[in-house]
From TrEMBL:
Bilayer-crossing regions: 383-403, 465-483, 495-515
Name under which the protein is recorded: ABC transporter domain-containing protein
Domain ABC transporter residues, every copy: 52-296
Subcellular location: Membrane
Length: 563
């Protein structure tokens, strides 16, 4: 979300696109800008505060005619200035609740959300809650070849208006706040590529969301996979963010005792039911009263996880069933009071977050980001070079004894076809592999309306093209002069290269489509031949399509290799 405080006065006239739904005419935009200008003078403690409340929220999914209730009429609240932690056994519904609160889950044909969620009394259905909130997913969604500083800088420049220096200042502040100084200029890396530690990567992910200065920060298991010390560092940072007035809510798995002691408020879920909500430090007393005393010297979090654990959720034992029922009825029997002082809470305006940059700016920033990311991972490019050179050497060997006469015409045609098939396969597979790893980032950013799909697609394709065109040029240089054609002149060579480039662009397009359809590079690689083989059969080289099964001749029209 973009709060007024973060807008830079200078960049507003050209770049601010945060507008209210009804305020799309020029005069209202000017008012909006003035509004932001006046807010520049606001101090941090005057930041808007949001109390998020949810009332009887249920989530019901239907699968093959069978209904399953994942959340069962849960109610609660997250206060500004506090860290609220959501805990419960695996499958209790924590992520589901967080996703519903973030507006990431919506009712659909087979999933129904019942209940009401309000922010400062305003139903979040009536506003674009994404404007006020940010969500840090469990998976680290980052480009592996960028540094934290570059990632934050691109994110800031794409999402926020303002001049370059304002972005630099904002990024430096976040780097300092998140204690990323030591690794700010190291490459992030990934599971397969050595880079930042898990804790550092997680802090970068949090930083990417803090760029827009959100008022509500929701996090799904930010400490999973981290050792207890690193996890504590992350929790300390979240508490720091909460103390700045943000509403911070996070699911957390297995916190250590010292981490647990730091939580402000705690919500415990069991099988979709709420079994505790209140101050984390009061929870042992509460459970002792309900007959489940936390053993001395035991981490309360560990105790709750064991208490709420159900071995087989579909078929709980009688004991498990009774235990959960006891806990639910004990919780339902207590009277909950909201002691948060609401006098400073204002109803939320229906602000909309739209791109902070225009198409050209998006294109330039995304191109630079894609270019840096591709340039720092030369392996894919080197492999493509190696593949083309290998095929070129084979073609050269075949052509070694090939005479320029009528008898060799068939072989020469086949060599031309081999060149086309090679280009189609290599380009399609290479392009298909580009997308799966970036799809989560693209989906996240396009949901946040940071840029248009067209600017992303265009910038990515153009940034990838040199890596595709150059190996092809080397291939053409190696084979063209050895295949016995009639004429060898430069213009004919360029026609040969140009035709293959056109084929390459078509194959890259097909590769992008296939890459978007799947989730992993392995599957992307595997499905390319499924589409390319029929296209090869209908390329025109093989016997007339009249000999092919009826009803399939249309394949020739979508074949990227059709000649
Ligand atoms: N769309 C869906 N279709 C089918 N089952 C679903 C769907 N969404 C959630 N569930 C089920 O609902 C239950 C709760 O899921 P959720 O991810 O919220 O659990 P969780 O408490 O976050 O668990 P974990 O700690 O393991 O991440 C799980 O059993 C999950 O399989």
């Amino acid at each position: 979300m973009i709060t007024p405080e973060v807008f830079s006065k200078k960049g507003m006239s050209s770049e601010i696109e945060v507008i209210t739904m009804k305020e799309q005419d020029e005069s209202s935009l000017i008012e909006d800008y003035e509004d932001k200008a006046s807010s520049l003078t606001k101090k941090q403690d005057e930041r808007i505060k949001i109390q998020l409340c949810w009332d009887n929220v249920s989530y019901v999914i239907e699968n093959k005619g069978e209904e399953t209730q994942i959340l069962k009429a849960v109610s609660g609240k997250a206060n500004p200035g506090e860290l609220l932690v959501l805990m419960g056994s695996s499958g209790a519904g924590k992520t589901t609740l967080l996703n519903i609160l973030a507006g990431r889950l919506k009712s659909s044909n087979n999933a129904k959300i019942i209940g009401q969620i309000t922010a400062n009394g305003t139903n979040i259905k009536d506003i674009d809650f994404g404007y006020y909130s940010a969500y840090v997913t469990q998976e680290d969604i980052l480009l592996p070849n960028l540094t934290p500083r570059e990632s934050l800088m691109f994110s800031s420049r794409l999402r926020m208006p303002g001049h370059y220096n304002a972005h630099v200042d904002r990024v430096n502040t976040i780097i300092q706040d998140l204690r990323l100084m030591k690794c700010a200029d190291n490459v992030i890396g990934s599971i397969t590529k050595k880079g930042l530690s898990g804790g550092e990567r997680k802090r970068v992910c949090i930083g990417m969301e803090l760029i827009t200065d959100p008022i509500v920060l929701l996090l799904d298991e930010p400490t999973s996979g981290l050792d207890s010390f690193t996890a504590e560092v992350v929790i300390d940072l979240l508490i720091e963010q909460a103390r700045k007035g943000r509403t911070v809510m996070s699911t957390i798995h297995q916190p250590s005792t010292s981490i647990f002691d730091k939580f402000d408020r705690l919500i415990l879920l069991a099988e979709g039911h709420l079994v505790y909500q209140g101050k984390a430090k009061d929870s042992p007393k509460y459970f002792a009263k309900t007959g489940y005393e936390v053993p001395k010297l035991m981490n309360p979090a560990d105790f709750y996880m064991r208490l709420l654990h159900v071995v087989d959720r579909k078929h709980p034992t009688q004991e498990e069933h009774d235990k959960i029922e006891n806990l639910v009825s004990a919780y339902n029997s207590i009277e909950t009071t909201d002691d948060y002082d609401k006098s400073a809470l204002e109803p939320l305006a229906n602000k909309h977050l739209v791109a902070a940059t225009n198409f050209a700016e998006q294109f330039v920033l995304l191109f630079r980001r894609a270019w840096i990311n591709a340039r720092r991972d030369p392996l894919a490019g080197q492999l493509l070079f190696a593949e083309y050179i290998m095929v070129a050497v084979l073609v050269d060997l075949i052509c070694n004894n090939l005479a320029k006469n009528y008898d060799s015409a068939r072989t020469r045609t086949q060599l031309l076809f081999l060149s086309m098939a090679t280009v189609a396969f290599f380009s399609c597979q290479n392009a298909a592999m580009q997308f799966p790893s970036e799809t989560p980032l693209f989906l996240k950013e396009s949901k946040q309306r940071i840029y248009s799909t067209a600017s992303y697609y265009l910038s990515k394709s153009i940034a990838d093209l040199p890596m595709q065109f150059l190996p092809l040029l080397v291939y053409c240089l190696m084979v063209y002069w050895t295949i016995p054609f009639n004429d060898y002149d430069a213009s004919k060579f360029f026609i040969f290269y140009f035709v293959l480039v056109l084929l390459q662009i078509a194959a890259i397009g097909l590769g992008y489509i296939l890459g978007c359809m799947v989730k992993t590079e392995t599957v992307a690689l595997a499905i390319c031949p499924i589409f390319l083989q029929p296209m090869m059969l209908y390329s025109g080289l093989f016997p007339s399509v009249n000999h092919y099964p009826e009803g399939f001749s249309w394949i020739q029209y979508i074949s990227v290799i059709f000649i």
